[in-house]
Amino acid sequence: MSTRTDPRDWLRTARETSNRRIALYALLTGLIGFFLLPIETGLVTALKTNDAFVATLPYVPPGPEGFTLRPARTALAELLPKMLNSVVLVIPATILSALGGSLAAYGMTNLDWKNQLAVVVLFVAGIFIPYQAVLVPLSRFWAIVGIGQYSPYAELVELIVTHTAYGLPITTILFRSYYQNFSDEMLEAARLDGASAFSIYRNIILPLSLPMFAVTMIYQFTQIWNDLLFALVLINQPAAQVVTQGLANLGGGIQTQFNAQMAGALIAAFPTLLVYIAFGEKFAKGVASET
Amino acid sequence: MAPTNRLRTAVRRCRRAVSRRLPGESTSADDSGRAVADGGTVTATDEGSSLFSRDFLESLPFWLPPTLLMGFFVYGAIGWNAIISLTDWTSFGTPDYGSLDLSQYGQLWSDPAFWTAAQNTVVLLLAFTVACLLIGLGLAILIDQGIRFENAFRTIYLLPMSLSFVVTAKFWSWMYNSQYGVINATLRGVGLDFLTAEWLADPSIVLGAVIFALLWQFSGYAMVVYLAGLRAIPSEHFEAARVDGATTLRMYWRVVIPQLRSSTISAAVVLMVFALKAFDFLFVMFGKYPGPGADILAVMMYRQAFSSLQWAYASAVAMTLFVMALIIVGPYLYWEYRRGEL
Amino acid sequence: MAQLTLDGVTKVFDDDGEDVVAVDGVDIDIDDGEFLVLVGPSGCGKSTTLRMIAGLETVTDGELRLDDSRINEQSPQERDIAMVFQSYALYPHMSVKRNMAFGLEESTDMPDDEIAETVERAAEMLGIEELLDRKPGDLSGGQQQRVALGRAIVRDPDVFLMDEPLSNLDAKLRAQMRTELQELQADLGVSTVYVTHDQTEAMTMGDRIAILDDGELQQVGTPLECYHEPANRFVAGFIGEPSMNFFETTREGDRLVHPAFEYPLPDGTAASVGDGESVTLGIRPEDVGIGDIAGDHAFPAEVTVVEPMGNENNVHLQFTAADGDADDFVAVVDGTEIHRHGEGLAARIPPEKIHLFGPDGTAIKNREPIDAEADAERAEQEPNGA
Predict the structure, then answer these.
(1) What is the pTM of this model?
(2) Which residue among C76, C93, C103 sits closest to A208, beta carbon to beta carbon?
(3) What's the confidence (pLDDT) of residue B38?
(4) Which of the two residues, A227 and B52, has the higher pLDDT score?
(5) Is the pLDDT of residue B179 over 60?
(6) Mutate which: B22, B26, B56, B70, vs A, most A CBs within 10 A
(7) Which domains does chain C have, with CATH numbers?
(8) Domain range for residue B172?
């Protein structure tokens, strides 16, 4: 859908239009600058020595004397173990919340029973709750369960379960809107073919869900990797901290070393950025489906 | 003849409802040429019979476990939170569920810090949402002009959404740094020294600075939503307006924007609820107390709970947040239900 | 192979608190190996009836019996019934071979090699053995339809159900598939219930047809029975293309009075119609004779539109009443008869071929049985009718 040029006054409007187009592209490119500036600044700052980032303009790359990889190395040393923890967290939580969402959505959408809608509403509403409203009971609950004392990894398990549970609303709704578009007749044909509900899920729904699994898992991966709040509340042992906590703690001390912090921010952002650039379309789908 | 007509109309209504649920099923036209779906399940309107009880039982193992898990962690926890807010639980030890009262709420009411935080929360909510929608709409309109490299532009504008708020907070802490940060350095560079400010330290502007950073992160989302909304408008509407001689501005104002109502509402709800939760960003930027200019209820709650160990008080703050979310989301859910979108 | 019985089958839906009767007390017996067509206008309940037989809708009242045992409570999985859907409903991610094998895998204990063999055979029968490794998305509409058929055949069920399987095909393919389906069904000898809204399909394909309107069964009979002896006005108007002509008349003495003409009542009919009662006079277009005709049963008319069909001409005509009101009707004549718009001529309604319907629509009198010899004799005696 593009703007149409008036054919009757071709030359004049063509010139006007091309002026408009130039302005348009200039604006769009300028906006690119706006959106990338903080990241670019972070990048160049991360590579500067302490003296350099004081002396030079913040978005200017470092000169040869100002260039250093030390902040990056410091940040990496600090963050790498935490990134591993994040990986241990993210993979099971993403898979479980996606799978749970698929199963729940199937049970509520392609199978027919009364008052389904009430359960659906519970899930939809669950997407919108502010997590502050559950933090106190959550920490109390896990304290009561008491597995956290045995090992740092037990705390990660707590976090995995937590993220799975809180991820279910959005994954379920994502799958539900996808399953609603499945042909009812195809599923009826399967029933006439003698397939049970489980067989229909395994042989028909699941294979056809693969695109949606990709969307959902990319979305969940990003959400869970980037989360700070639950990690703060549930992870108390430093050995179990995830990368967001690590990054938040970077910059402790009186002198905040911005170059190290910038390096840390980029390192922590790297996986989600990578996923985003590789799978941008799917990410956008997941994000837009929140509405 | 009248009862037959009533029957016919009712069956047609059934069928129309069915054809909405079955997009893409082939339809046959009845005598008046209207498409009528012939053959489709009318769902959820059957009386219970043994057949459907079986369907219900068959479906249980699929949706019940996730629902129970989610139900406990979400609704169970909120209920528990409400009860805790009625106790006097603080620091170590266990809550006393025996004596429940509204004293925490009374305390909340008379706490100036609460009102400051509440006010900031509301300002953040409204200003951020409105600005984000406007910017998102602008971006979507620009992108929709049939430009080349559309994918590249969209990807870059949406990129900040993929970042953690921790990362964003770090970047913008650096951007806003009063000595070396990009903003002040650039202003000084072009001779606009008088415009520099203590962006994060000055309570009168800090909220604005926070909102601006959050806009950076979220405009892409609003853009994506509006882009989908714009693309859903049939191009005939644009063409008809053009043929009618409308200027671009007029066309957008009178033709396009009214049709984006549902996109706007959905996006607004999501943005507002996000603003309610915007803990991560502020915590990383300011720590547990962002100062009177930027303290919001979400951060206050965390502080009260995990720093001051005032569990019950924090729960009361959290319940306030929950009620605010309910006020935003409740009507939205009802509206969606009415539209049959659920 | 089985006898399928619908005994007072009724379906009531709850539409927002109101009860909607989609199917009302339908009684049909389908014999073993019979091809029964359920036909009627859109919304008449035929698809709902089919879905009740399949088990995809519950039966509100009445009984469904397969070989004399009640199947109302059986789930679709348990019934030995195969269905061909209007949209084919193939599994898009499975190959044609797997699509056809799936039913056997799920509902029988057949070993894999036997399944493969059965699928091969069915595919050959339908001419799709080349397509076995392809996916439905790579096939044309006609090919998909065959796969859907194959999927049903492979199961060797008690009953075939078909829900307008040809309506998504183009006209030529549809005509071709009609014959193929008939041959197939005759070969396999499986009881079949076939739903369509196209009365041509019904007439050409069914051993018997069951006509439904607004959930009620209007008539069950062979195609010719329904054509020549319609039970009521609805059936008479629904079956036959172009539709039967209807004239609203009132009996006065020994004639049926219409605004544009007075029709002498045939002998023997007088008793069944009360004096002063309204009667609908029906006559099929191919029975109307037009031209320079005289006689008690011929009346002046004017040609409005001529539709040349090649072998025949559909001539649309008008009777004009004294007060200027016009009543339109159609005559079908041989393709060599030339008529023009505006032409004035006489239209003859032969008394032995009329149908009479009472005020409630029921047939009072149908045309006399087709007797080719008698017709020929009559035509000889009165070349222009009398």
Answers:
(1) 0.84
(2) C93
(3) 40
(4) A227
(5) yes
(6) B70
(7) 4-237 (3.40.50.300), 245-381 (2.40.50.140)
(8) 113-338
